[in-house]
UniProtKB/TrEMBL annotation:
Protein name in the entry: Long-chain fatty acid--CoA ligase
Location of the AMP-dependent synthetase/ligase domain: 49-300, 309-372
InterPro entries per the UniProt record, alphabetical: AMP-bd_C (IPR025110), AMP-bd_C_sf (IPR045851), AMP-binding_CS (IPR020845), AMP-dep_synth/lig_dom (IPR000873), ANL_N_sf (IPR042099), ATP-dep_AMP-bd_enzyme (IPR050237)
One GO MF term attached to the UniProt entry: acid-thiol ligase activity
Pfam families per the UniProt record, alphabetical: AMP-binding, AMP-binding_C
Matches recorded under Gene3D superfamilies: 3.30.300.30, 3.40.50.980, N-terminal domain of ligase-like (3.40.50.12780)
Keyword Transferase: no
Source species of the chain: Cohnella fermenti
AMP-binding enzyme C-terminal domain location: 419-489
Keyword terms, alphabetized: Ligase
């Protein structure tokens, strides 16, 4: 048997029914160790299994110190038992709004061990948005850091009566069991009377036991609600089952350990509760690896330009280039085992021919089954539409295009903002251009431009520059000059802000015209 055939045989046997094996995997050498099946039941069994099989192995490192899997599991059970003690029931949502600190790992697995549904919110999310997500999911409690939840009164007003468990980022030590018992008895009295629960994390965890059993859960039970970035609109909560979290962990663990051994478990400075951070955390538990935690934001997290593609709707990487392979411009990579990906047209599920640009849709064991809608049962979807425009070559490699919402009509046909931005940036006076659009019917393309220092150009000149290259017909183009662009935490232009501002400007202009007409 050829080496590539052995790899193909391993993954063909593990691929879910209906998911075809991508050709490129057959070109890899065999795995160092055959990939294990994900554990049954609760996704937290990934951690339970790791602690049972390798209790003394380091689970994470933080500020020069490490913590073993056995000790981490004990801390996670403290969270689980503490949540149970204040009345959090199986199936209830618990928001986790913490920075990249060990308590974020403990809270995440603690919620799962208690049978709850985790709603992770990473540290780059503003408090107002964190409150919106907490309220939208109807969370029974939120585990939050004092540093992130600066105005707890406003948070309470936004989310209503909810238990807020405040966590100290630097754990203090209680000087005696009497202090713990006194704080705990006071906490139980307040919660028993139905008071709004402002729970001191140290008191809660200090009185909870560090052992127990994971709550039973079926593979199809809801486990995690993971929010998208909200670059082009309000962030949506993607729904993951225990089975999809476990499947994503095993497959990403294969990518890290079996194929790409040099891959770091968590990219440098990626927030732990970001979708990519959680995927790597779960993968580390699946392979008993050590996660290096590093606080702070990063401008190096660029999934679309580094030969890998992750999205909030996937519990693992969705696309990736082979390690040590040739990097191609704009290449996102190939689908990982268990993921099926297609390029489709608007409103269609039929696959488009290689080379044509269309929307990327994905499905598979580690893909979300739908989105959270408050007050309504979740609708299960077969395919997830990513909203990203891509193309695929003959070999099955996918290439980045743009967001589907942003396309514009021209005499050359439909083009993406990226193509328009390249045309405008070719003007000698332009340093950077970003294209958005208004939401009004037949909305125009709004081009925000930063000029090069010492250069001068008018809006009319740049609009003519575009039309000379795109034709006179199609979507109207309007150029505006700015000193800076609104950015996401990852350094990408925040199209939603451009779109909202442009719409407000257009509506104001219409109102001014109507006022002038009424005066006349």
């Amino acid at each position: 048997m050829e080496l590539g055939d052995k790899t193909a045989e391993i993954w063909e046997s593990k691929a879910p029914e209906g998911i075809r094996l991508q050709e490129w995997w057959s070109r890899f050498p065999p795995l160092r160790e055959p990939s294990e099946d994900p554990p049954d039941g609760n996704a937290a069994n990934l951690l339970v299994r790791a602690a049972r099989e390798r209790p003394s192995d380091p689970a994470y490192s933080f500020e020069g110190r490490t913590c073993s899997y056995a000790r981490l599991l004990g801390r996670c059970f403290r969270f689980a038992n503490g949540l149970r003690s204040i009345g959090v029931k199986r199936g209830e949502r618990v928001a986790i709004y913490l920075p990249t600190v060990p308590a974020a790992i403990e809270a995440y697995y603690g919620v799962l061990l208690a049978g709850g549904v985790a709603v992770p919110i990473h540290e780059l999310c503003e408090p107002e948005e964190a409150a919106r997500r907490t309220a939208e999911t109807g969370a029974a409690a939120v585990i939050a850091s004092r540093s992130l939840l600066r105005d707890r009164g406003l948070f309470h007003e936004a989310v209503g009566t909810i238990k807020i468990i405040l966590i100290e980022e630097r754990r203090g030590r209680w000087k005696g069991q009497e202090a713990v018992e006194a704080a705990w008895s006071g906490l139980r009295r307040r919660v028993g009377k139905g008071d709004v629960g402002l729970v001191h994390g140290i008191a809660l965890l200090g009185a909870a036991q560090a052992h127990g059993e994971a709550e039973e859960a079926a593979a199809g039970d809801l486990a995690v609600i993971q929010y998208s970035s909200g670059t082009t609109g309000p962030a949506k909560g993607a729904l993951f089952t225990h089975g999809s979290i476990a499947a994503g962990a095993v497959r990403q663990a294969y990518w890290i350990g079996g194929v790409n051994a040099e891959e770091e478990p968590i990219g440098r400075a990626t927030p732990l509760l970001h979708p990519e951070g959680l995927a790597s955390l779960n993968a580390a538990a699946a392979r008993t690896g050590c996660v290096a935690l590093a606080s702070g934001s990063s401008d190096a997290t660029k999934e679309r330009t580094s030969g890998r593609y992750s999205l909030a709707e996937a519990a693992s990487l969705a696309l990736a280039l082979p390690p040590r392979g040739k990097r191609r411009d704009g290449a996102l990579g190939f689908p990982l085992p268990g993921v099926e990906a297609r390029v489709v047209g608007t409103g269609s599920l039929d696959e488009m021919p290689p080379g044509e640009v269309g929307e990327l849709i994905v499905r598979g064991a580690q893909i979300a089954f739908g989105y959270w809608k408050k007050g309504t049962p979740p609708e299960r979807q077969d395919w997830i539409r990513t909203g990203d425009l891509v193309s695929r070559d003959e070999a099955g490699c996918f290439y980045w295009g743009d967001r589907a919402f942003h396309r514009f009509a021209t005499e050359r046909g439909m083009i993406t903002p990226g193509e328009m931005e390249k045309i405008i940036a070719a003007h000698p006076a332009v340093a950077k251009a970003c294209v958005g659009r208004t939401q009004a019917p037949g909305g125009e393309a709004i081009v925000r431009i930063i000029l090069r220092r010492g250069r001068i150009a008018s809006a009319v000149q740049l609009e003519r520059w575009c039309r000379d290259r795109l034709g006179a017909g199609g979507t109207p183009i309007r150029c505006e000059f700015v000193d800076a662009l609104p950015l996401t935490p990852w350094g990408e232009p925040l199209k939603r802000e451009l779109q909202t501002t442009a719409t407000a400007t257009a509506e104001a202009e219409v109102a001014d015209q109507e006022a002038v007409y009424a005066t006349v």
